[in-house]
Amino acid sequence: MVYFSRLLLSFSLLAVGLASPVKRTVAQVEADIASISSQVTTLDNAINAFPATGGSLTAALAIHTDATNLETTLNKGTTDVKATGTVDDADGNTILNSVTAFEPTILDALKGIAAKEPAFAALPIGGIPALILADLKTLRTDTGAFAQALIAAAPADLKSEATTIANTIDAGFATAIAAYS
What mean pLDDT comes out for the span 118-131? Predict the structure, then answer.
């Protein structure tokens, strides 16, 4: 009975240890942002390569895959930012500069996807515009969560600038979603 109690206590302590949140580092957040930036570029390139007429189902589904990959990375980034906590001014500036660097790319992708709605609607298989709309809504939610986590972790003097970037990107999502609604 004593052995069983010790075994139960050991498993309980192990479970608590595994369930405890793991503290992340600013370096991990920066790596996440680099990954997000890379995936935003990949998505933007795929959208730009999709023709205004005569696109293929394969290319449209590749855009969906790129969006799904970005969603996963955004969620990981959000988790890591929350686990890192508040950052100092130097790290906050580095993170803000990294996000600012890919802001034009995500806005270009959103503008491009909105402009190409007729091309997606013209594909011989229906449902692609609905799939893109679902991706846009999910990406908007995931991007918003990531932005809010970054704003919460930012030093006080950077929160305003970070909020402006988040609002600009959100407005880009609103425009793209409106094109598919």
Answer: 94
